[in-house]
Write a structure and sequence with these properties.
about 350 residues; Nucleotidyltransferase, domain 5; 11 strands; about 20% strand; binds adenosine monophosphate; six-stranded mixed sheet
Length: about 350
């Protein structure tokens, strides 16, 4: 069965074609016009040489599943309504996925469609980790921590089982890309995440500041209006706010004091949040890195691990420099791994499992 995995952003659509767990083709359509998801989808399929009528199913990456959508599932009218309701919680993130779903419906009206959620992996977090100490009426509106990058972390759990032979019990996982977060994974289940109600919280990111005193948000909203503050917080902060670019490679090449400080800030706060997450697991047995920076930037990995040396983590500098998978010294009491991002395959595997569940029921 041919499965089309669709990752719709506000200005690009990424497609991947899977047959069982094997990726057969991929395509990326950039700079799509507003409302142009259907045309972008058709172009992407043409690029991959795929006829829409040969597809068996499509699966969409959806950032926010809210409190109720906690596993990959078939998109029924009720599920679609829930994703639409979550668009209020994730105004920047869910609308492109909804546009992607509508585009597939336009192109292949009878194709079964599935949704995989970035929040779902964190559904196992205990209430104490997800609850904000806010008045009940506001908590009832859904103001709580959800956590994101869940498909990436689920893929890390799957890959680490293969790479390490057995899954480490207490795993501190970093997803360091343009968006950056860390997650405490106990026995394969998320118990805490650095991201909260939205992907704005936690680590210093490419264009987001990470954790801020809420009074800073109030000040920005008073000065720039709510929409202006949202723009600053989502697109004008983080590495870009500190040094003018969100691209770690450009910062590395810049060699300016500003760029060096931005990298310091990124590493320092990754380690600070990482240590806090270890408290949620009662310690740490393994640290993993994934994402564009986590997989490729040996110096960032080394600096974060060196800041966490008090936990017993000792990096093998040569293995790290060579970009090997296992990058800890034999004497390290904490294993350290780099794990290639594998979100598309994760979506494909979870969709396959959802289809099998459905078939078992009928
Ligand atoms: P992602 O969002 O996972 O695609 O990651 C994007 C980030 O990874 C950007 O900041 C890139 O500069 C960074 N990145 C990609 N390749 C490298 C590399 N070889 N060295 C350092 N950073 C990299």
């Amino acid at each position: 069965m041919m499965l089309l995995v669709v990752n719709s952003g506000s200005s690009s659509v990424k497609l991947a074609l899977f047959e069982a767990a094997e990726q057969r083709a991929e395509a990326r359509v950039e700079e799509i016009a507003p409302g142009g998801h259907a045309a972008a989808l058709a172009r992407g399929l043409a690029q991959m040489g795929v006829r829409p009528d040969l597809l068996g199913a499509a699966a969409h990456r959806v950032v926010h599943g809210g409190a109720s959508l906690t596993q990959t599932c078939r998109i029924t009218p009720a599920v679609l309504a829930s994703i639409e309701a979550c668009a209020d919680l994730a105004p920047l993130h869910n609308p492109p996925a909804l546009a992607g779903i509508a585009a597939v419906t336009d192109l292949c009206p009878d194709l079964p469609q599935y949704a995989a959620f970035d929040t779902a992996f964190h559904a196992t977090n205990p209430a104490v980790a997800t609850t904000y100490a806010l008045p009940l009426a506001d908590r009832r509106r859904g103001l709580r921590r959800y956590g994101f990058h869940g498909l990436s972390y689920a893929a890390v759990v799957r890959r680490m089982t293969d790479l390490a032979g057995a899954l480490p019990r207490r795993m501190l996982s970093f997803h360091l890309g343009n968006g950056a977060s860390a997650c405490a994974i106990l026995d394969g289940c998320s118990v805490a995440s650095s991201m909260g109600f939205s992907p704005l919280d936690g680590l210093t990111m490419g264009t987001r500041a990470g954790a801020l005193d809420p009074a800073v948000v109030l000040d920005l909203a008073a000065r720039h209006g709510v929409a202006g503050a949202a723009e600053i917080l989502n697109r004008g902060s983080g590495l870009r706010g500190l040094a003018g670019t969100n691209d770690m490679r450009v910062l590395r090449a810049a060699g300016t004091a500003e760029a060096a400080f931005a990298i310091d800030h990124f590493c320092y706060w990754a380690a600070r949040h990482g240590a806090s997450l270890c408290a949620a697991m009662g310690g740490v047995d393994a640290i993993t890195f994934t994402g564009g920076i986590g997989e490729n930037d040996a110096e960032v990995r080394a600096r974060i691990v060196n800041s966490l040396a008090f936990l017993g983590a000792v990096m093998d500098a040569e293995a790290n420099g060579r970009g090997e998978r296992a990058v800890h010294k034999a004497t390290s009491s904490v294993a350290i791994w780099t794990v290639p991002a594998d979100e598309e395959r994760q979506i494909a595997l979870e969709t396959k499992a959802a289809i099998a569940r459905k078939e078992a029921q009928t």
